[in-house]
Amino acid sequence: MKMVPLEIRDLAECIQLSQRSDPFSWPDDIWRRSLRDDHCLGLVVGGELLAVAAFSLVLDELSLLNVVVDRSARRQGLGRQLLIEGVEWMQQFGALRCVLEVRVSNSSAIALYRSLGFAEDGIRKNYYPLEGGRENALLMSADLPLAVD
């Protein structure tokens, strides 16, 4: 298992991972823009990209834009490892605080973020697409470094 910075050459793999793992995956143009303009980190196991995190850094504030873990690799701690290493990686570029949005229905992600010291900051109404409507996002943030046990 290894963490690797992702670049535009990894576009096809990111799109495939996202499409098979998320019913509301990012469109191709968003992946292209993020791989070009943001900081993306991948977790590779056995030569296969199993998880991706995309971060944006403005001054000292880090935004977690997206985390995708392959459906077959969930509940194994890969998302936690990717998030911890990704935030540590971004601290090298000056990140002092991390903010994110998460679906209010994504209880496993919310539990992960809380376990790393993220606190709830509010709700963003109708933020995420949902079959037949929209879903609220929970806003969360944490000062860095994360509270890793």
UniProtKB/TrEMBL annotation:
Pfam families: Acetyltransf_1
Enzyme class, spelled out: transferase
A single Gene Ontology CC term: ribosome
Catalysed reactions, as listed in the record: N-terminal L-alanyl-[ribosomal protein bS18] + acetyl-CoA = N-terminal N(alpha)-acetyl-L-alanyl-[ribosomal protein bS18] + CoA + H(+)
Function: Acetylates the N-terminal alanine of ribosomal protein bS18.
Family: Belongs to the acetyltransferase family. RimI subfamily.
Protein name as annotated: [Ribosomal protein bS18]-alanine N-acetyltransferase
Main subcellular location of this protein, as a coarse class: cytoplasm
Keywords on record: Acyltransferase, Cytoplasm, Ribonucleoprotein, Ribosomal protein, Transferase
InterPro entries found in the cross-reference section: AcTrfase_RimI/Ard1 (IPR006464), Acyl_CoA_acyltransferase (IPR016181), GNAT_dom (IPR000182), YpeA/RimI_acetyltransf (IPR050680)
UniProt cross-references to CDD domains, sorted A to Z: NAT_SF
Superkingdom classification of source: Bacteria
Location of the protein in the cell: Cytoplasm
Organism in which the protein naturally occurs: Spongiibacter thalassae
EC number: 2.3.1.266
Phylogenetic classification of the source organism: Bacteria, Pseudomonadati, Pseudomonadota, Gammaproteobacteria, Cellvibrionales
